[in-house]
Amino acid sequence: MSVTARMAFVNGSGYQLIEDCDATHKALYKFYAAVMIVIFILALPLNASVLHLFIFKLKFWKSNTNNVFLFNLVLADILLLFCLPIKAHNFINGERRSSDEVVCKAMLFMLFLNRGASIAFLTVTSIDRYFNVVHPGRKNLLRALKKSPQISILIWLLLLPLTIPTMHKNFECCNSHKTGPKEDTLIKEVVDSMREVVFFTQILIPFIILVYCTVHIVNRLRKKTVGDKTKLKRAVFLVMSVMVVFSFCFLPCTIARMVLLIVRVQELSESHQDKAAVAFDGLMVLSYMDCLLDPLVYCFCSTKFKALYLSNYFPFLVKDGQVPIDSSTGNTVQPTHNTVI
């Protein structure tokens, strides 16, 4: 169905707009698909190799560091990556979303759950770094809980209720705030609103937390006049890198979503709605870059992890004669390959 042929007669009472799943800019959506395929090809082996290290080398479940959180972050990113080939297939076929209701809802479920988990573990790790730097001597609940994998399980379980709006039957091609049958209007509006609340809160609240942590860690660095500043500078670099990645990946699609909702609620022309939808879909593709950037920012910001990674996968980049620092217990290891050049 084309853009100009989206009027459907409903129950003999009048006409209403029903948005179908067809992409009106097929060449552009094929470009979106190509970008997602590139992200998938680059990010899958990177995340898989990091996951392998966490399980078989670091034995993250025995560690008292952030390894448990980082393992779950990488796991969430890998699960999110498996959605990309399906979305790319839809885009190549000229569909914004799958026309199959089961596939459409399953994709929304996976995207909501795993992107939410990725953001949650990203935020929790930043909060932990904030307490370690700004309040190093203070006991906090997060420091006690991170020693147990149960906190990670709890985060996953808390995210599950947020996926409930994606399972509701009343939505057209996975789109919110579109006109529907009169008897379903109230229910549909409530469900659509819940879905949008989940979308915005899982991005905006963590972003506010990241800004707060970054500002306080930077202030802590400025006030520190004595002692070794190396660890503090690393913490500043880490949280600022996370904020940059977060801003680059998630804020643009959040703004685009706001614009799209405003255009729909104000019932502007279909041309405006279509342009807003195309822009939103493109910026959502940009948000999947998070799966590629997370390991680079959070795992490779650690010189210990970087040394271990290179000694296992790229031994030709390391120099003999020194010992890399890292193992399942956080102590030094004794392999034949050593520290990073």
Give a structural overview.
With 341 residues, the chain is mainly α. The chain has two domains: 25-301, Rhopdopsin 7-helix transmembrane proteins, CATH 1.20.1070; 311-341, no CATH class. It has twelve helices and two strands, in the order ββαααααααααααα. The protein has helices spanning 26-57, 67-81, 84-92, 101-134, 141-145, 150-159, 185-223, 230-249, 251-265, 270-287, 290-299, 303-313; strands at 7-10, 14-17. It has a two-stranded antiparallel ribbon with strand order 1-2. Strand 1 (7-10) and strand 2 (14-17) form a beta hairpin. Helix 7 runs antiparallel to helix 8. The longest helix has 39 residues, at 185-223. The chain is globular. The termini are far apart. The model is unreliable at 1-19, 179-183 and 321-341 (pLDDT under 50).
Question: Would you summarize the structure shown here?
Answer:
This is 12-(S)-hydroxy-5,8,10,14-eicosatetraenoic acid receptor. It contains 12 helices and 2 strands.
Overall strand count:
2
Q: Return the structural class.
A: mainly alpha
Strand fraction equals under 5%
Total domains, how many? 2
By CATH reckoning, the class of the largest domain would read Mainly Alpha
**H/I helix tally:** 12
Strand order, main sheet: write it out: 1-2
Order of H and E elements? EEHHHHHHHHHHHH
Rg, please?
23 Å
Return the CATH architecture of the largest domain: Up-down Bundle
The CATH superfamily label of the largest domain reads Rhodopsin 7-helix transmembrane proteins
Give the low-confidence spans.
1-19, 179-183, 321-341
Mean pLDDT: 77
Give a quick account of the main beta sheet: strands, pairing sense, barrel closure. 2 strands, antiparallel
CATH topology of the largest domain: Rhopdopsin 7-helix transmembrane proteins
Helix content: 55-70%
